[in-house]
Amino acid sequence: MDTEIFLIATDNIDNCGADLDKAASYIKEGGLVAFPTETVYGLGGNGLLANASKKIYEAKGRPSDNPLILHIADAKAVDELTDYVPDMAKKLIDAFWPGPMTLIFKKSDIVPYETTGGLDTVAIRYPMHPIALELIRRSGCYIAAPSANLSGRPSPTKAEHVITDLDGRVDAIIDGGDVDIGIESTIIDLTGDRPVILRPGFITEDMIKSVLGDVCFDPAVLLDHADSSIVAKAPGMKYKHYAPKAELSLIEGDDLAVLAGFLKMIKEAKNKGLKVGVIVTKEHEDAIDADAKIVLGSKNDLKSIAHNLFASLREMDDFGVDVIYCESFSNEELGRAIMNRLLKAAGYNLISAE
Ligand code: TXA
Ligand code: MG
């Protein structure tokens, strides 16, 4: 299939109406269009059409038991797509929509099981990116959209990542430049008595607590090691994910120990004749040297770390390194989401530098 690329500047949407209409018509007709959101690029199809959802799974190579998120452009859509909206949902919607938050509800009959991976629940998100909103509105559809990467690869934060993974597999890709946040939305399950965070993201535990007074984590999110006896409630969280091609290890410990740990690991790998990549914070940039080095940003600026994270994992693939060593981060605030993605990308390969 020929994939059409539409270049649309976020600040010039009004002049790109014809391209947006064409992209929207692909969605309306059951086709697939990748588009930017504020978190990561999404791979969109009409979420109420079973066949469009099947095509999404095929294009990504995604297991069909891993449900999709429905994207809406008006909070009222929740009434149509769900059976029951608890009070806590209304409070979260008022506080954080449109934005990087996905809520899980009991689904209504109009949502096909092909979209929810066979579950009776549905994930809904009202994004804030103007291109995403315009695409949803012009298509007149609720757009099912997983991250627009091949299954298992790091989520795409630039159109070129989407083109690498999906060119020839989708009808169109909207290039709207780099995304803002860089890691996927916070997922909150509202189907039980207590709200539960199934995937940490930009909307943090503290932010949710400030609105609801209470929230807890799905136990699978709190693991820092592989444990097959604890099954994640978000089916997608159980798969190895975000992984670069080279073996990735995270190095944790206090500042000096981390530096010593890096130097030791790099030396050992070099002795084995391996090509080494490092992903470090700005604070450690000058002290660590390797065949390839990517600086994520200052460790005091978690937003820039999150923004650069997935792109750096993909960039390491381009360098063709054999092993990658990356700094680890504390679980405070956005650090929780960063570590969640990094631990998965590393297959929980965490080295304690003492
Ligand atoms: O920021 C985002 O959420 C991006 C952008 C494109 O909106 N989308 C995204 O979708 O990350 P995806 O498919 O890559 O991740 C969706 C996650 C998966 O882990 C999936 O298992 C979980 O949401 N999920 C979807 N529906 C669910 C449900 N009914 N119950 C539990 N987990 C669900
Ligand atoms: Mg994904």
- Uncertain regions spanning at least 5 consecutive residues: none
Characterize the quaternary organization of these chains. Answer: single chain
Shape: globular
Helix segment tally: 10
How many angstroms separate the termini? 53 Å
Binned, the helix content reads 25-40%
Number of strands: 16
**Beta-strand content estimate:** 15-25%
What strand line-up does the widest sheet have?
Answer: 1-8-2-3-7-4-6-5-9-10-11
Number of domains: 2
| CATH 4th-level superfamily of the largest domain | DHBP synthase
Structural class: alpha/beta
Helix-strand sequence: EHEEHEHHEEHEHEEEHEEHEEHEHE
**Small molecules bound in the structure, each named once:** threonylcarbamoyladenylate, magnesium ion
Task: Sketch the major β-sheet.
Answer: 11 strands, mixed
Give a quick precis of the structure:
The chain is of the alpha/beta class and 354 residues long. Helix content is 31%, strand content 18%. It folds into two domains: 4-222, DHBP synthase (Alpha-Beta Complex); 247-352, Rossmann fold (3-Layer(aba) Sandwich).
